Amino acid sequence: MKTLAGERDFSFSSKGVPFQPAAFKWVLSHPEISGLVVTFKTISQFDLYLTASGERFTAADERTLKQYAERYSEEYCRTGCNDCETACPAGVDIATTFRYDMYFRDYGMEKTAMESYAALRKKAENCGTCEDESCAGACPYGLSIKTLLQEAHESLSFSACGGRGRSDRNV
Ligand code: SF4
Ligand code: SF4
After folding, report:
1. Is residue 59 part of a domain?
2. Which of 72, 93, 118 marks a domain boundary?
3. Whose Cα sits closest to atom 7 in ligand 2?
4. For 6-21, what is each residue's pLDDT tens digit?
């Protein structure tokens, strides 16, 4: 699961080598992995994803993945990481907020994401005015936690609907 790191850009490719099959092939190149769990929502996804089936991971695939990482690494919260769990003295649930934000803007699950966020006990509503620097530098992957939390809160709050969603995104 989570083989596409949010799939921020469905059309991402490098020199004609698309991101998604490259990612699938990289995952499947590990002998301990026997299969992928991937959601298909559109025929175009189906057509693209299946090109990875039975194919080897290549140097061209690796180039595409590196370029995707260069572009999106500092925006993607690694699902299951939670290294920043104790970074916020106010107890904002950073990783869960980012997960719901991913549902909202990458998976096209806006309603589910907003309802889930509404049920969170510690939301990011005060990050915009927070002067505590505790969360700065807490992410080993370089995510600007405060800024990204503000954006997520804006998107996920019913009172400040951000409209950053995309309907054909996937896992
Ligand atoms: S440390 Fe970074 S990648 Fe890990 S959960 Fe926190 S924001 Fe996400
Ligand atoms: S900006 Fe302040 S309230 Fe928001 S996560 Fe960081 S420390 Fe917590």
Report:
1. yes
2. 72
3. 88
4. 888 889 999 999 999 9
Report the separation in Å between the CA atom of 98 and the middle of ligand 2, taken as the mean of its atom positions.
13
pTM equals: 0.87
Q: How many domains does the chain have?
A: 2
Residue 6 located in a structural domain: no
**Nearest atom in ligand 1 to 78's CA:** 3
Ligand 2: atom nearest CA of 131 is: 2
Q: Is 7 within the bounds of a domain?
A: no
Cβ atoms of residues 162 and 124 within 8 Å:
no
Q: Which of 49, 72, 95 is the last residue of a domain?
A: 72
Ligand approaching nearest to the C-alpha of 80: 1
103 & 162 share domain: yes
Q: Whose CA is nearest to atom 8 of ligand 2?
A: 88
Ligand 1 atom 5 nearest Cα: 82
**Structural domain containing residue 110:** 75-171
Neighbouring CB atoms inside 10 A of 35's CB total 7
Residue 3 lies in a domain: no
Report, as an integer, the average pLDDT of 26-40. 94
Q: Are 9 and 170 in contact (CB under 8 A)?
A: no
